[in-house]
Amino acid sequence: MFAVEPDVKTKERNEHKLYTVFVSSTYKDMKDIRKAVLTKLNSSRNYIPIGMEDFTASDSNQLNYISDRLKDTDIYVLILGGKYGTLTPEDHMSYTQKEYEMAMQDPNIMVLSFVCKNPEDLPAKRRWQNDEEHKHLEEFRQKVLSSGKLVKLWEANDDDCAEHIAFEVYRSLILEDKDDLRGWIRGVSAHSC
Fold first, then answer.
1. Which residue in 153, 157, 164 sits closest to 80, CA to CA?
2. 2-39 burial, b for 16+ CB within 10 Å, e for fewer?
3. What's the topology of domain 18-53+61-83+91-175?
4. In the chain, where are the structural domains located?
5. pLDDT along the chain (193 residues), means of 10
6. Which residue in 86, 107, 147, 164 is a FRET match for 101, CA 20 to 30 A apart?
7. Cα–Cα distance for residue pair 150/171, rounded to 1 Å
8. How crowded is the C-beta side of 26, counted as CA atoms within 13 Å?
9. Which residues, 6 or more positions from 46, have their beta carbon under 8 angstroms from its beta carbon?
């Protein structure tokens, strides 16, 4: 048997894969950071960002909807600051942690985490509101930090925190080996005769 070399068009299509990137974080306290990351990803030819900003109204349970979006995800990006987040009604875990756990369970999803190194230095509007939330946040942080997946730390005192994180997310996506990811390949357009 002889190996057949793929044709040039097949090689070109494989080199231009698009990857879906699910961006996860708490919402209100991270709006500016989320916006910067999603804008950076939207400006790229290589990534299709998925964020809660794009979620549509749905009759389904929110966790079911998130689970469906994760099925279309190649890369999951967690941005963890100083809040634990809104709790799910089912198991009283934050939606952010639940998203993270679902992504970690899927072997087809690359997980990248960007964690605030010193959340106690964040402004009050970006920090936990009580001891219970702080306890849950710390447990979640430790789980992420010891996950064995890529984790990058960011400083709470960066003046341009949002732009810095957006740059680090984009840079990390570029540097990560994505050969094993499914990705999306734009279909070949048909020409009529």
1. 153
2. eeeeeeeeeeeeeeebebbbbbbbbeebbeebbebbbe
3. Rossmann fold (3.40.50)
4. 18-53+61-83+91-175
5. 45 66 94 94 90 58 82 94 92 93 95 95 93 97 96 81 93 86 62 45
6. 164
7. 13
8. 22
9. 17, 18, 19, 173
